[in-house]
Sequence to fold (600 residues):
Amino acid sequence: MAHPQLAGFPVVVETDVAWGEMDSFRHVNNVVFFRYFENARIEYLRRVGWFNLMDNTGLGPIVHSAQARFRRPLKYPDRLFVGARVITLEADRVTFEHRLVSAAWDDLAADGQAVVVCFDYRGNKKAALPFDLRERIDQLERTPGGLTTG
Amino acid sequence: MAHPQLAGFPVVVETDVAWGEMDSFRHVNNVVFFRYFENARIEYLRRVGWFNLMDNTGLGPIVHSAQARFRRPLKYPDRLFVGARVITLEADRVTFEHRLVSAAWDDLAADGQAVVVCFDYRGNKKAALPFDLRERIDQLERTPGGLTTG
Amino acid sequence: MAHPQLAGFPVVVETDVAWGEMDSFRHVNNVVFFRYFENARIEYLRRVGWFNLMDNTGLGPIVHSAQARFRRPLKYPDRLFVGARVITLEADRVTFEHRLVSAAWDDLAADGQAVVVCFDYRGNKKAALPFDLRERIDQLERTPGGLTTG
Amino acid sequence: MAHPQLAGFPVVVETDVAWGEMDSFRHVNNVVFFRYFENARIEYLRRVGWFNLMDNTGLGPIVHSAQARFRRPLKYPDRLFVGARVITLEADRVTFEHRLVSAAWDDLAADGQAVVVCFDYRGNKKAALPFDLRERIDQLERTPGGLTTG
Fold:
């Protein structure tokens, strides 16, 4: 899939809407959109090796803040394409942009952002993003519409 | 409970952290905070009679956008106090502010906002907030630190 | 995919394990398996037209009981294949068997059953399964290892 | 609360139904009942010190199987009382019985069981239940209607 709304997103994950994700208003509950975004973000972190890094050094991601704008109600059945890209890379944090395209709408259904901070889970304090990780993010984003380095 | 962080919040709901809400990083997953916020917001909507209104008229709430700032990691066991208040009341929408206080931290653990739009579920379009509903929101908020009417 | 563990299952849905479905023990929380089963069961109900039937008549499914046997711990990343088939068809209920195969284990990771009763949501009482629905279930199951009619 | 349906249950946890736990059929989704049961079971494990034990020895609980019988549909708002007790104690496992009482129904809304096996998370194999843990379970259950030791 190469929906124009996801052009420039190096990571796009696909998922089906689960019937049980709908609430009493018969569309997907707003909370679930943050799970969809997380799924794409986690896949991004996996690809740049942050989970391996965490196993080796204890430096892991922690979510500082998140936001979403819900543009279209979603219903079962539908297939979703959820993008993640890094739009700002700072000394101790990255800002992700997320976009969610619905096959049923053939359009953007939601977008949002999440700020992820590098956290030293062993020392229990914030930490700088390791150089290697920054390099791999930079590499993954070297696509049109990519990254601002802060 | 009257934690100073929740002063001026007309609605505060209490909940225990569920062990199963923690993820592999052994703290409550960030997505769950939006559910906590929703719990307080829904209680607010119930108190001002929006669910009755929806049964009678088809005019219900729809979430336009949501955001959260995560300030403290949460763990099981803990008891949470989640506040909701309306900070802006416009012709067709309200903006909620949420604050979440953790008993374990004895402090603010997260805060955020959600914009809720009035939606005509029968006519499938946005609608103005009924006068009665605005009145009841206004009444509930007539507390120190309350409401800006837009 | 035609894993031998899913032979004879007329409905198999595929899904990726979401990282956020893991709990503090770093494997998928047992509650989530029931959601995986539900996803396959709902797809089954959709294929035999039960959702259309419900819109037209108010006769919908209600879960009477459910059980699962967890055979293998699941972790992110993994791809799951979840089967649903009807093993007993009675006057007012069907019994589903579920099996969940993990790509990472290349083996059965869980199985279970769910009994679904036909419920008249308008009249608020149990009801007989409509003849047409029974026919479509029977047709879907006419595969090796299928259905006992009660 | 001492509802007769929960007589003999040494652990009872209380929780409010969350609006977002309801699905499109406008009652609490069946999957969520297993989370309610888990909440009571985890509180039980906490009280007998299994989480401390796990931190010290790596011997933790793993869910082998679970089942539920749904007796009453649940809706928001409601307050739930969820009981856990051990009905069988074997060399390497315990069987929990769960009951869920709804304030709105003033009656049993669901019951079920879960078998929890002692697992050596460091050695990655099943293990015998430590003597101290068995003692504490035995002590907690020394109430009318309690425990069969296997």
In short: Helices of chain D lie at 30-47, 50-57, 131-141. Chain D touches chain C at residues 25, 29-31, 34-35, 38, 60, 62-70, 73, 121 (CB under 8 Å).
